[in-house]
């Protein structure tokens, strides 16, 4: 019997945003791999599910992945979840998936779709989404200017993730390159204090500077198609 690894989406805020299929499988797997077992434990408790859990995250040792692959080779059923959203999307889960594909090709890897801040934000941004570029979190230092220059030259809709600690810096950098580009920012999607902001890059940076957008929370930043070509900024 071959093992199976479920890549399972969990709520990004609202606890009700989980599929019936996901709930069933959570109760059936031999082991649940969680980014933070305390966070996932709250979800399990909410739905009265009891399952053995093991921590797997960005800082997990290689030996943890080796142990996971051994269990899959034994025919075990495992599920991988993050604290919120879909594993493998701007998430270290893709490293485990790549390793399983390489070292245990007989193991089935099955997606269990559900909540995603990426697709949720795109669905209400109002920009063309028949083609878009997802760039996740930009590098903090090396390569950041190059990535920003790519963004300003990109004609399609561009999606970024940003933390509350760096959103101001990102908006300043975007204004330097594309002040008139249409922008939509979404904070705390599906949570109690969900907020949507729309305008040009310049307008939303000014709004942030005045303190209107400085609340805590994760941000999805979506740039609409560029209205006109703009100059590149040299890599520093």
TrEMBL record:
Matches recorded under SUPFAM superfamilies: Tetrapyrrole methylase (SSF53790)
Keyword Transmembrane: no
Domain Tetrapyrrole methylase per the UniProt entry, residue ranges: 5-204
Subcellular location(s) of the protein: Cytoplasm
GO terms assigned for molecular function: rRNA (cytosine-2'-O-)-methyltransferase activity
Recorded catalytic activity of this chain's protein: cytidine(1402) in 16S rRNA + S-adenosyl-L-methionine = 2'-O-methylcytidine(1402) in 16S rRNA + S-adenosyl-L-homocysteine + H(+)
A Pfam family it matches: TP_methylase
InterPro entries membership: 4pyrrol_Mease (IPR000878), 4pyrrol_Methylase_sf (IPR035996), 4pyrrole_Mease_sub1 (IPR014777), 4pyrrole_Mease_sub2 (IPR014776), rRNA_ssu_MeTfrase_I (IPR008189)
Gene Ontology cellular component terms for the protein in this record: cytoplasm
Listed CDD domains: RsmI (cd11648)
Keyword set, alphabetical order: Cytoplasm, Methyltransferase, rRNA processing, S-adenosyl-L-methionine, Transferase
EC number: 2.1.1.198
Keyword Cytoplasm: yes
Record family assignment: Belongs to the methyltransferase superfamily. RsmI family.
Reported function: Catalyzes the 2'-O-methylation of the ribose of cytidine 1402 (C1402) in 16S rRNA.
Protein name (record): Ribosomal RNA small subunit methyltransferase I
Organism annotation: Candidatus Kaiserbacteria bacterium CG10_big_fil_rev_8_21_14_0_10_45_20
